[in-house]
């Protein structure tokens, strides 16, 4: 039995962050990865998604400016775009493995606990002072007849030829972002949503504005609709729902993600978990002493995002190397859907406090600013939530919502007033940043 100081299970953003920090110490570390080194975000998540979105945004912005100095909208060649994506990303898992291998041992395979102290992989058994589970999440697939026809975001983000008709099941982050992408590339898209609205994290108005803009571009939505079966028909696939049939050439399942715990052998341990993930305490320790969990695989109320996973990796490194004894305190977390328009938010959601007199909600249309008017962006609307004149929440629907909302995060996170901000910060003009101080006045 080989023994280490630390064993990292997984190599996504959470574990990779810790692995990089541990590389600067003299601790003996083993990293176990069952699939692509680097995990979801760089290989089949945020990074390829935002890379492909660059071309899609150009197409959509040029369409938005038709007749306003643009006479010919840009056209997206999916095959060429995908080739550039593959050229950039294909070597990343092997390169990441090499980087890790320079300072740590690696095992290619799925780690399986055989008891509270021991993990097994490739018939090798290992123990360590600390075992850190960072196995992330995997897509949910509906258990319906024809589930073999369902594709995941992993498949779509490497799809070499663009199908003509794409049915998307689910209207969360993955469904709406990837629907935006393939529709911009020319696919006919139908989104099937089993509830009455799309992204629930944002305000109803923001969600409605996004859905309306997507519909105006020809994307179809079927709300309150259950998908029942997928079958091969004479003319492609047939998605049968309780509201009728949808003809498609490709079906994307975007019905949420579940914690990657099935292959871990947790039943051989006393580690507790629920459907949201592994239960951890304020120091990210599981219900077994010496075993910790970080990243998407843990059960917590914070959103499952790369910066959150990395923050937990940094925190746990600091805790295990005695740099802190404190429980983890999460910072103000910004999140965005990279749709067109984008939606972005942080802090208190305006919908949740609309009837609470302790809060003041301020909504500002940005379309009159030259920056937005120059893009013919008619939608951009910023919502600010104040409590005792202090900014506690921000959200936006608009072409630059993610960057715009980023401007407000330091004000919420550092808890500074509009006056203090104006005294200490002068931002670039003309951007939304230059209006931040003015907007902070109640
Ligand atoms: C399509 C898509 C787009 C996204 N876009 C964004 C975005 O724009 N911004 C953002 O912040 N977040 C985004 N995310 C979320 C982000 O990718 C995750 O929050 C992040 O990757 C979580 O990191 P992690 O290290 O916890 O898990 P992961 O990155 O999922 O890594 C876990 C690793 O563990 C491995 N593993 C699993 N089980 C075992 C086992 N038993 N043994 C060994 N290895 C195992 C897996 O193979 C995987 O490599 C997106 C996700 C998806 C799917
Ligand atoms: N831009 C980003 O930051 C980004 C992008 C993609 C993913 N992510 C992360 O990944 C997570 C997962 O994203 P996601 O889109 O897979 O999940 P999600 O939870 O955002 O959306 C899931 C969708 O599936 C639907 N759904 C759930 N169960 C269903 C069922 N049985 N039948 C039909 N529809 C069903 C939901 O109503 C919802 O529309 C996100 O919560 C986020 O943390 C982030």
How far apart are the termini?
64 Å
Based on CA inertia axes, which overall geometry fits? globular
Low-pLDDT runs: none
Radius of gyration: 23 Å
**Beta strand count:** 24
Identify the CATH homologous superfamily of the largest domain: FAD/NAD(P)-binding domain
Helix content: 25-40%
Reported by name, the CATH topology of the largest domain is FAD/NAD(P)-binding domain
- The CATH C-level name of the largest domain is Alpha Beta
Largest sheet: 7 strands, mixed
What topology emerges from the helices and strands here?
Elements lengths: L1 E8 L3 H10 L6 E5 L6 H5 L1 H19 L13 H12 L2 H12 L1 E4 L3 E2 L4 E4 L2 E10 L3 E3 L10 E2 L1 H4 L8 E5 L3 H12 L3 E5 L11 H13 L3 E3 L4 E7 L2 E6 L2 E5 L1 E4 L3 E3 L13 E2 L2 E2 L12 E3 L12 H15 L14 E3 L4 E6 L2 H4 L5 E7 L4 H4 L7 E7 L2 E9 L2 H6 L2 H5 L4 H7 L11 H4 L3
Parallel strand pairs: 1-2, 1-6, 2-3, 6-19, 8-15, 9-10, 9-15, 10-11
Antiparallel strand pairs: 4-5, 5-6, 7-16, 12-13, 13-14, 17-18, 20-21, 21-24, 22-23, 23-24
Bound molecules: flavin-adenine dinucleotide and nicotinamide-adenine-dinucleotide.
InterPro entries: FAD/NAD-bd_sf (IPR036188), FAD/NAD-binding_dom (IPR023753), FAD/NAD-linked_Rdtase_dimer_sf (IPR016156), Pyr_nuc-diS_OxRdtase (IPR001100)
Protein name: NAD(P)/FAD-dependent oxidoreductase
Keywords: FAD, Flavoprotein
């Amino acid at each position: 039995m080989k023994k280490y100081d630390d064993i990292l299970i997984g190599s996504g953003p959470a574990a990779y962050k810790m692995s990089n920090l541990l590389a600067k110490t003299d601790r003996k570390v083993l990293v176990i990865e069952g699939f692509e080194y680097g995990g979801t975000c760089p290989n089949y998540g945020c990074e390829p998604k935002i890379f492909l979105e660059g071309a899609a945004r150009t197409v959509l912005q040029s369409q938005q400016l038709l007749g306003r100095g643009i006479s010919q909208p840009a056209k997206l060649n999916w095959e060429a775009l995908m080739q550039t994506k593959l050229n950039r990303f294909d070597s990343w898992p092997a390169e990441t493995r090499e980087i890790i291998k320079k300072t740590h041992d690696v095992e290619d395979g799925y780690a399986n606990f055989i008891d509270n102290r021991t993990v097994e992989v490739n018939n090798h058994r290992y123990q360590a002072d600390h075992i850190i589970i960072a196995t992330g999440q995997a897509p949910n697939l509906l258990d319906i007849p024809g589930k073999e026809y369902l594709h995941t975001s992993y498949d779509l983000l490497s799809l070499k030829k663009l199908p003509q008709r794409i049915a998307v099941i689910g209207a969360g982050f993955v469904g709406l972002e990837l629907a935006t992408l393939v529709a911009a590339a020319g696919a006919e898209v139908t989104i099937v949503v089993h509830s009455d609205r799309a992204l629930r994290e944002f305000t109803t108005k923001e969600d409605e504005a996004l859905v309306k803009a997507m519909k105006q571009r020809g994307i179809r939505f079927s709300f309150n609709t259950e998908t029942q079966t997928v079958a091969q028909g004479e003319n492609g696939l047939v998605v049968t729902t309780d509201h009728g049939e949808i003809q498609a050439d490709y079906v994307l399942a975007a019905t949420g993600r579940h914690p990657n715990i099935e292959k871990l052998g947790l039943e051989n341990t006393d580690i507790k978990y629920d459907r949201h993930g592994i239960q951890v305490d304020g120091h990210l320790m599981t219900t077994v002493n010496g075993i910790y969990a970080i990243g998407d695989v843990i059960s917590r109320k914070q959103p499952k995002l790369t910066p959150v996973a990395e923050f937990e990796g940094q925190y746990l490194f600091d805790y295990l190397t005695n740099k802190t004894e404190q429980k983890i305190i999460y910072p103000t977390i910004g999140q965005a859907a990279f749709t067109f328009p984008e939606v972005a938010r942080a802090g208190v959601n305006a919908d949740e406090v609309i009837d609470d007199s302790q809060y003041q909600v301020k909504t500002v249309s940005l379309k009159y600013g030259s920056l937005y008017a120059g893009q013919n962006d008619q939608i951009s609307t910023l919502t600010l939530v104040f409590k005792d004149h202090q900014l506690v929440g921000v959200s936006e629907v608009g072409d630059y919502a993610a960057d715009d909302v980023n401007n407000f995060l330091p004000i919420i996170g550092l808890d500074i007033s509009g006056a203090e901000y104006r005294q200490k910060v002068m931002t670039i003009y003309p951007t939304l940043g230059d209006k931040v101080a003015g907007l902070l006045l109640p």
